[in-house]
Each structure stands twice: as structure tokens, then as C-alpha cells.
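Ticket opened by: R.M.
Priority: normal
Category: complex prediction / small molecule

The reporter submitted a protein together with adenosine-5'-triphosphate and asked that the result be attached to this ticket for the collaborator who will pick it up next week. Submitted input follows.
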Amino acid sequence: MAFFLAVANRKGGVGKSTVSVMLAHAMSVWGGKRVLMMDLDSQCNASLILIGGQGWSEARKANRTIADYFFDLFDGHTMQPKDYLLPGVGDVAGADGRAARISLLPGSLLLEDVQGELFLKQAQQTNDPDIVASRVRGRLEQLLRRFEGNFDVVILDCAPGLSFAALAALKTADKVLVPFRPDYVSQLAVDRVALLIEGRRSLNDLDEIPIDRRRYICLANYVREANGRERTLIEEIALAHPILETRMPQRDGIANAFDWVAERRGIDQKYGNAIADVRKLYTELAPMLAQKVTA
Ligand SMILES: Nc1ncnc2c1ncn2[C@@H]1O[C@H](COP(=O)(O)OP(=O)(O)OP(=O)(O)O)[C@@H](O)[C@H]1O
Ligand SMILES: [Mg+2]
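Result attached by the on-call engineer:
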């Protein structure tokens, strides 16, 4: 049974796609896990990092994207879910020098359009918009879960908005990793996504759930070590939310890892001066993800 890890924040540009791919590489190369990356963002950044522009373009032309998957299988099509996956993706080699065991369900620019179409299709059956919305979300959840037998870890890179796919991902996730940048908006953004994940209406309601029982965990990203104001912001978030001890600094090695290169290399080369940070993040997070994998 795969462990579902969603990476989400309502705020954009906080490192969701970067961290999603980083963890996919780490869990596959260091953890020996079979990893599936699902790109739930129509910006398709996780796909671009893993297969490059041309690879993504080919997947799109071959109708092997998440939008095709949702559209084709929504009503129970005969296509197999695995037909939509690209195996052995990424520009990092596994321990044996071969492709790391990462599969990708590529992103699509049409993901929102397809969700709209599925909504309209359901709306023909009932007039109640709440019922329609919950049916669409429920069906997308089932489709996300279809892969759980074939992987150890499924990473869901969520879009910053509130799409059906993002809501389904948050519902499906065993754990949600919430990267944030330590700026003034971050506290508000983390509060809002936390309410959504835990299904609470107010911060008072959220407080009823002990911090160590929450389904999400925050990660300070893009941290500039010497900056005292950032440290204070992170400490304030840590008072109200679970947070990893690891803080990801702003590093060239992480920024450069955004660019896919045609030749596979070792994970150390991929992350350059950030490899120790990647290792630290992986070491802290892996035991949390192992719980369900070995259960
Ligand atoms: N720790 C870091 N150090 C340096 N650059 C970083 C770091 N984390 C992320 N970045 C850079 O910040 C930019 C935004 O990151 P990314 O696309 O992963 O964010 P995102 O939350 O997925 O954005 P979106 O909401 O648009 O999907 C990218 O250019 C990435 O390379
Ligand atoms: Mg992203």
C-alpha cells in the first residue's frame, strides 16, 4: 500500500514542485522506494523538472497526462491506469547507475478545463451543486488511489489554487507537506491550508487537534540563515503548527535542480551545494513516510 504524500500550500512559488521532485529523487535513490509523482498543477513544473520540455510535449501529444487520465477513466473506461504513466523518469541515476525508480503521471495545461467538464457532466444528473462537487472530488480521489498497489510512495504536487484535484489530493494524503517561505504572508497561508487539510473552520477549532496529531507538517524553505526576522517568523509558525526541524536554505544547488538535463547523473551532482540539505530533509521525513509503507 503506497503512502500518499501531498505537497501543498495555497501560496504560489514556495517550493512545492522543487521539494516534491527532490523527495522523489531522495526516496528512490536513498530509500530504494518505488515512487510515483502525480503532477496536479496545470503549470506542469514537476513534469518539466522530471522529463524536460520535449519529454512533456511528447507525453501531451500521446494523451498521457493527468487530464487525459481523469477524463478517460472518470466513467470507468477500459484503459489501464498504468498506460498513462511514464516509468524511469528524472535526470538522476539510481544506485545501480540505471534510471531511478520514479514514474510520472505528467501534468496538463488542460487540467482545469477537464475538471470543469467533469463538473458539468455530473451536473446533468442533479441540480445540487454540493452533491455534484462532492461526487467529482470523490471520483478523483478514487482515481488517485488506483495506483496505491504498485508504488511505495505517491507524491502529489498540488497547484496553489483550490481545484477539485487539489481537494481530492488533500483528502487522499496520509501526510501533507506544507513548504512555506518565511515572509509576512506565510503565517496566513499556512493557517489557511491547515484549516483545509484538517477540515476545521477556525483556528480555535484547529487548536483542538494536538500538534503531533495533525495530518500536515510544515517546511521552512528559502531560508537565509543570517536573517533574524525570518527566524522569528518561523518560530511564530512553529507555535501553532507542526514543523520540520530541517530548514531548507536558499541555495544555487536547489535553484539549478529545476532544470532538467538530458544525461543522468548522481543525486550529489544534481543537487550540488545543497546535497547535505536534501539528505537532512530526507532523513527527517523518511521515518514519517515509512509508517504506512511497512504497515
Ligand atoms: N531553497 C531554494 N533555494 C533556491 N531556489 C529555490 C528554493 N526553493 C525553490 N526555489 C526556486 O523558487 C522557484 C519556485 O519554486 P517552485 O516552482 O518549486 O514553487 P511552487 O510552490 O511549486 O510554485 P507554484 O505555486 O507556482 O507551483 C523556482 O524557481 C525554484 O527553483
Ligand atoms: Mg509548483
